[in-house]
Amino acid sequence: MTDTSDTRPADGEAPAPRRSRSRLHRLMRYIPLVAPVLLWVVPCWTLLYTGQHWPLPVTLAGTALSALGLIGMPLAMTRGHGPRQQDRAAVVGDTLLGTGWVLFTWSVLLGVLLRLALTLAGVGEGQDRARIVTWAVLGVGAVLLAWGYAEARRVPRVRRLDVPLPRLGAGLDGTRVVLVTDTHYGPLDRARWSARVCETVNTLEADLVCHTGDIADGTAERRRAQAAPLGTVRATRARVYVTGNHEYYSEAQGWVALMDELGWEPLRNRHLLLERGGDTLVVAGVDDVTAESSGLAGHRAHLAGALNGADPELPVLLLAHQPKFVDRAAAAGVDLQLSGHTHGGQIWPFHHLVRIDQPALAGLSHHGSRTLLYTSRGTGFWGPPFRVFAPSEITLLVLRSPHPPTST
Description:
alpha/beta, six-stranded mixed sheet
């Protein structure tokens, strides 16, 4: 593995144009005001006040629980994720957020669809139909939350995929690239989970292991114990890392330093050369697209700097945290970009909002004439400790050449 760490911009390169704020970013400004009301008032109304005629103590108790969620969720999240950084409060707030989202989603869906189905089945208006909807929402919600919690806390399944790269030399055919991303070590202590993830990675006999950012929520000093098992990961060629947007909420330079200490190569707008069987692959990485707005000196997404000095005839594997960087990658002729960030939506149907901001949600997609993008659903979870219809993954990508070596 040869290090070519020149991070100077290419001669005459103009700064990358600033993207206008996406629709999702504009929408995000209003979410803190609107979300608590929607997430708790809508389920309360659907479950208690649409013809059920529950006994007064039941109605009062249910209303009180909804009011606690409405008030407690933003308060707990502010104390947990705000300046105080109280982990217990963050766990409470995040759990209430996930619970409210699931109840809201299924109150809306079953409140409409199940009522329609019951009407078609001849179950008329009245208390019976309203109570059937209530129990269905509560039952589906409980099952999905229990299942989603188990999915979030489990060691991810390994997803294996062959990726054909037309410019890949025959000597690199069969190169094994393992991708972990969005581990999001945080308020829930997942040191044991982290160790088991790394043990799983080590069974895959990787040539190259990549982490495409969002290691944790919190500073490197605070989450060191959870991140420490990353130092045990093995690869025959290299372990490489790029920053995600969450590093820039938590002293990104500290995470870069810790990953370097753990034996990972932080690819901050630079590249390495992976040589195998007489052929060479350029492995490049860029800072997250939010890096420049963080105000940290020297942090920005700079693809020309990452590729500066690389032979343009060689195939390029690029690490970039967010899938939307693929527009720049395709313009530069990158062969394969590896990304995370989306979590696959994490809790259905949040993926519809993710699609507003990102060109891909999960899996392999084609962009431009040459570029492939692989978007991981992530190895961990952010915030709510649930994954619903968006399973986590450790990804094994086997690179394939159009001219594999012939056996002798």
